[in-house]
């Protein structure tokens, strides 16, 4: 048993009769948890109320007497194996998450043994099973017949139903060997290796939850990605003002190694201009602007100076949209036509390596 608040953490173990006592607690509000791999909270009577995550909330102003009923947790057991060869996969990670509302950390977790088998204690309920092993495609298990479905992160995922004290057996999961990419990063001179920097690929490898996968280059600039699904991938790298230009793409097949050509980084570019008021001439200072890469690879922020000028420097090649963040302003670029000056919405800008885009003028309107 565990009693805790922001200042105190005390624990006690039940005796042979199930009795426990947590003493020496200052008066205050405590969260009481049943800490056991074999049992979970079922019901209770006494001076407490139900909290979150199977906890009890106690307002301690004197001695609190409680009777807590527990019931056995359930078990999920099975085997992790290579779907092609049938060989067991040791050290695979098997995790459950809290219902359909996936959280960053697994709710229950275990690993497969040397023979690929696993047993995982879980609370009674419905659980999605997520399996991950180096070199294999990660994902939710979908092969169990006794499944219901829930939706998480926009996806429908299978759920395994576990009842109190029940062992759900034969949850055997075959993993598919993914593809891999091996490559090397060099600067524009093609000679000096780019070591100890992160290589990112798009689209990202499915995981829970996941942003883009990052792999660090070694002292020779080399890197290896494993466990990739079949498809085309693009490299995204930033190093000392040098960038990928979006043209470094490779195709990956399941179970195959793809050796990429050396990735040569190129200089970034710049985008500059001025913020002016509605009259078209008065500069507007201290306005925050953003340049957003349309592929989602980067955001850049600057502020206009006393003369309304701004400049984005060392910007990776790509397509960008510019925007103003000051509340109450709208922004337009200004174009001169034979009929005079007209306002137009900000267009997407395409920036190439080493390019300097100048003369971008925003007119602000309240």
List keywords for this structure.
0% helix, Immunoglobulin-like, 366 residues, mainly beta, five-stranded mixed β-sheet, 4 domains, five-stranded antiparallel β-sheet
Task: Describe the secondary structure blueprint for this structure.
Blueprint: E1 2-4, E2 9-11, E3 28-33, E4 39-46, E5 49-50, E6 55-60, E7 66-72, E8 74-82, E9 93-96, E10 108-111, E11 117-122, E12 125-127, E13 129-132, E14 139-140, E15 147-152, E16 155-162, E17 167-168, E18 173-175, E19 179-186, E20 198-202, E21 214-216, E22 222-228, E23 231-236, E24 238-239, E25 242-243, E26 249-252, E27 257-259, E28 263-264, E29 266-267, E30 269-276, E31 288-293, E32 299-303, E33 309-315, E34 318-324, E35 330-337, E36 340-344, E37 349-351, E38 356-365
Parallel strand pairs: 8-17, 8-18, 19-27, 19-28, 30-38
Antiparallel strand pairs: 1-2, 1-3, 3-6, 4-7, 5-6, 8-11, 9-10, 9-13, 12-16, 13-14, 15-16, 19-22, 20-21, 20-23, 23-26, 24-25, 25-29, 30-33, 31-32, 31-34, 34-37, 35-36, 35-38
């Amino acid at each position: 048993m565990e009693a805790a608040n922001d200042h105190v953490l005390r624990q006690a173990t039940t005796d042979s009769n199930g009795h426990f006592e947590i003493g020496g607690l200052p008066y205050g509000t405590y969260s009481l948890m049943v800490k056991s791999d074999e049992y979970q909270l079922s019901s209770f009577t006494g001076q407490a109320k139900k909290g979150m995550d199977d906890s009890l909330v106690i307002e301690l102003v004197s001695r609190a007497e409680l009777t807590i009923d527990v019931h056995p947790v359930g078990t999920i057991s099975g085997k992790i194996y290579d779907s092609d060869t049938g060989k067991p996969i040791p050290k695979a990670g098997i995790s459950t998450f809290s219902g359909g509302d996936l959280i960053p950390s697994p709710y229950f977790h275990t690993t497969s043994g040397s023979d690929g088998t696993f047993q995982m204690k879980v609370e009674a309920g419905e659980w999605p099973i997520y399996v991950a092993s180096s070199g294999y495609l990660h994902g939710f298990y979908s092969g169990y017949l006794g499944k219901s479905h829930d939706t998480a992160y926009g996806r429908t995922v299978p759920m395994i139903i576990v009842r109190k004290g029940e062992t759900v057996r034969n949850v055997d999961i075959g993993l598919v060997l993914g593809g891999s990419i091996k490559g090397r990063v060099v600067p524009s001179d093609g000679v000096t290796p780019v070591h100890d920097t992160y290589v990112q690929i798009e689209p990202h490898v499915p995981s829970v939850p996941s942003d883009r996968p990052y792999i660090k280059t070694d002292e020779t600039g080399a890197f290896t990605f494993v466990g990739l699904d079949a498809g085309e991938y693009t490299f995204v790298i930033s190093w000392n003002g040098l960038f990928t230009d979006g043209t470094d793409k490779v195709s990956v097949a399941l179970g195959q190694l793809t050796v990429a050509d050396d990735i040569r980084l190129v200089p970034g570019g710049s985008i500059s201009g001025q913020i002016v008021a509605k009259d078209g001439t008065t500069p507007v200072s201290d306005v925050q602007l953003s340049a957003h890469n349309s592929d989602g690879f980067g955001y850049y922020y600057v502020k206009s100076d006393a003369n309304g000028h701004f400049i984005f420097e060392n910007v990776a090649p790509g397509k960008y949209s510019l925007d103003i963040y000051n509340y109450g302003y709208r922004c337009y670029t200004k174009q001169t036509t034979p009929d005079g000056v007209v306002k137009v919405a900000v267009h997407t800008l395409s920036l190439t390596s080493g390019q300097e885009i100048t003369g971008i003028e925003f007119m602000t309107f309240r």
